[in-house]
Amino acid sequence: MSLSIIESCVSCWACEPVCPNDAISKGNAHFTIDPKKCTECEEAFADPQCATICPIEGAIRTAANEAFNPEGSLTGIPPEKMAAAMAEIQAR
Amino acid sequence: MELKVLDQEEIKVSESGGCAEGSCGSDNDQMAQLPESIREKVHNHPCYSEEAHHYFARMHVAVAPACNIQCHYCNRKYDCANESRPGVVSELLTPDQAVKKTMAVAANIPQMTVLGIAGPGDPLANPERTFDTFRQLSEKAPDIKLCVSTNGLALPDCVDELAKHNIDHVTITINTVDPKIGAKIYPWIFWNNRRIRGEKGAKILIEQQQKGLQMLIDRGILVKVNSVMIPGVNDEHLQEVSKVVKSKGAFLHNVMPLIAEAEHGTFFGVMGQRGPTADELQDLQDSCSGDMNMMRHCRQCRADAVGLLGEDRGSEFTLDKIEKMDIDYDAAMVKRAKIHDAIAEELNVKRSEKSDSVNSLSDVAEEGKSYRPVLMAVATSGGGIINQHFGHAREFLVYEASMDGVRFISHRKVEDLYCSGGDTCGDGETVLQGIIRILDGCKSVLCSKIGYEPWDELESAGIQPNGEHAMEPIEEAVFAVYKEMIENGQLEVEAEKLEKASA
User: Which of B70, B280, B427, B438 is most buried, by CB atoms within 10 Å?
Assistant: First the structure.
């Protein structure tokens, strides 16, 4: 059981200090999670800490390789409401 | 939200201001309204004093990458050499590297008085890296002022530590005091190991900011408040923010325009949120200024900027370059002190000359008539004088001359070639056309020299080029040009009304 980080990671460092297991390090292209150390924060926290602070939708994957933070979950705007939100913002 | 009411003691301090010290003249120097104790702290701080920013330099060290909130105007992919805006850096430093770099810059640029930690994330979300840097610098380079800027979320937990390292300048970015508005700026915060979204998250952030502000004031630490002006979101509301932070004791409010170019990849940029126009920004700053000492000279610099505001000498101090430098800091401190004294002396002389020369319009103005205020642009490379060739200017400072005197309004940045053509802008505007556009509203541009071609184009755009005041102090020159305009009959209010009526 381990989370993983994919190439859409922007190397912002937010996850590194909040990992309780020191499982995260800066790789060449992006940050990576050591699967031997990662516990998905089970029992320690309600949510995995890296996925809770990560600002990039889709960058952190579950053990089943699904986006922990799917599209729209961090902007607060689901994909089907994107066009309407954009129109509202552009009218400002 | 609960607001602490000013107690009598505080009111007394702010009312007596600088006037009690006998230095509150008739000019409009923003610092003149401040108590002596604060002026002493900020007189050589380029980010806090408009006057100081012509002479003293600052630097930021990028030791703090992580952030604990998301702002819609920030893209966390911050590594870029070509962009100049907050949150962007070229290389991240360890605290040891940052200390070395700071001492190298201080030795080579003796005008550097201030070291700030401003990201690229939130300095207080990286407390170990931030405080390790401050701890070392307060021991090794005691003549450098230390400051920090923060989004405020972790501030209440850090105030004691900040006070310990003798950090007497803190900037808090406060964009709102209303969670409803906050939810439109901050989609989420990381708080107590959870992601808190929307209004609930914004409410916690606002409470932490206000609590942190109060704690800093209680400890006598100077606080400046930064606000990003976002049209249609918090623009009108920022007047309320100004009142609230002033009543708590912040001494300076810096309202900055939203930067939201689509190519920066921020949420606002991608969604097409516009930034304010120069007029909208100035109107808001003016309407806040009744309540609060406003800052207008901010350049919204990078989190690793080095040099005078408006310039960036960071490329002279990359890690490989400072590695080769041999710094004798004790000797550097002696030299720095001499140079700081010389600047202080020069400023004193200038201040006394200013009160003589910028006096009145009585020799040109006709009694009973009133004259329009005028905006003028100035090309300067520092030192408070007109000393830059028009074609070399990367930015122009805009001053307003009026019957009340001369005041600094804003800077207007010459857009980089790199951004002003190609696919994103598409209109194929030349650099000169771009400059004419950014100088919109200015009647004149004062510089040391200017070529024939730009001269003609500026003139036909209604902006009079003027190279007659090269090497003169800015405010005196602007005032002299204003007087000429009055003498030439260009500015009478009645005349303008007639023009409009016949148009």
Answer: B70
